[in-house]
Design goal:
The structure holds two protein chains of two kinds. By secondary structure, chain A is mainly beta. Chain A is built from no helices and eleven strands. In chain B, about 0% of the residues lie in helices and about 55% in strands. Classes of the chains: A mainly beta, B mainly beta. At the A-B interface, β4, β5 and β10 of A face β4 and β5 of B.
């Protein structure tokens, strides 16, 4: 089955700096890669996703890049703000699977 | 506004009890999922269902079963609760076709004593 590894497990940045979270996946058939943000005490919510037919996608201060050859994808947050503090999960899914496989999560702390 | 609602936010149960966690969604989603969330382990899939009365095992099904009698409702059952099942349980739902967003419930924090 699919295996998704996520790094780092914790990340602390100063407000205004950039943050990068990286994930690798094992199944070359995976073609959908969403990122979820979970604020303290709340449910995970989708913030951005990318499909395997594109290499990069941006939405305001967040972007995701995908390298299919190396089987890794990354989340980039620019101009971080205190409200970006949360746990971020990457995930992967292929057409042969009905469910997402999640990474272990990254706790991002943005210091004001 | 999509809603996935879990019946309890917090539960405390005794070892050996049979425990039911309920999840209801209002988006007419075909897929429903139960995940378990533990620190450092992310979200691990327990079971999922893609249709009424249909179910498939996920990555950690041992000690759990599920029931889906109606499209909008998906139940997770702990046949005989054990302390190692103390965890946060998250229900999610999504449409069947293609790669689409999964919507999560607010989670149930289960403590088995």
């Amino acid at each position: 089955g699919e295996n998704v590894e996520q790094h780092p497990s914790t990340l602390s940045v100063q407000e205004g700096d950039s943050a990068v979270i990286k994930c690798t996946y094992s199944d070359s058939a995976s073609n959908y890669f969403p990122w979820y943000k979970q604020e303290l005490g709340k449910r995970p919510q989708l913030i951005i996703d990318i499909r395997s037919n594109v290499g990069e996608k941006k939405d305001q201060r967040i972007a995701v890049t995908l390298n299919k050859t190396a089987k890794h994808f990354s989340l980039h947050i620019t101009e971080t703000q205190p409200e970006d503090s949360a746990v971020y999960f990457c995930a992967a899914k292929g057409t042969g699977r009905r469910a997402l496989t999640f990474g272990s999560g990254t706790r991002l702390q943005v210091q004001p | 506004d999509v809603k996935v609602t879990q019946s309890s936010r917090y539960l405390v149960k005794r070892t050996g009890e049979k425990v039911f966690l309920e999840c209801v969604q209002d988006m007419d989603h075909e897929n429903m999922f139960w995940y378990r969330q533990d620190p450092g382990l992310g979200l691990r899939l327990i079971y999922f269902s893609y249709d009424v009365k249909m179910k498939e095992k996920g990555d950690i099904p041992e000690g759990y079963s599920v029931s889906r009698e109606k499209k909008e409702r998906f139940s997770l059952i702990l046949e005989s609760a054990s302390t190692n099942q103390t965890s946060m349980y998250l229900c999610a739902s999504s449409f069947l076709g293609g790669n689409t967003e999964a919507f999560f419930g607010q989670g149930t924090r289960l403590t088995v004593v």
